[in-house]
Amino acid sequence: MFNEDLLTWYREPSFKEQHMKMELLPDIINAKEEYKVEEVYNCYKKWGYSTQFLVHWKGYKNEYNQWIVETGLPHTKEAIQDYWTKLSR
Q1: What's the confidence (pLDDT) of residue 86?
Q2: Quick one: pLDDT at residue 27?
Q3: Cα distance between residue 27 and residue 59, in whole Å
Q4: What are residue 33's phi and psi, to 5 degrees?
Q5: What is the DSSP letter of 86?
Q6: Domain limits of the chain?
Q7: CA 74 from centroid of its chain's CA atoms
Q8: For the segment 7-54, what is each residue's pLDDT rounded down to a tens digit?
Q9: What CATH class does 35-89 carry?
Q10: Buried b (16+ CB within 10 A) or exposed e, 44-59
């Protein structure tokens, strides 16, 4: 159940900074679009689910960081390994 009086109409963002678009084009790897991960910032593991990593995309600001399941990051083994190395120090 939800109180529909709490809903508001959608409004277009007023400022250009409010539009979150991926401005850079992805690389094509094995005929698929891939964005490059510059660094892994954090890790989250939930019981029964895969490990998720907070990734920083190369060429983008921090506001574009995303939690991505490890299986969704096939070409980022080096960035993930660097993250684990930083934690072990």
Answers
A1: 87
A2: 65
A3: 12
A4: -75, 130
A5: H
A6: 35-89
A7: 14
A8: 788 777 777 666 655 556 566 666 666 778 889 999 887 756 678 889
A9: mainly beta
A10: eeeeeeeebbebbbee
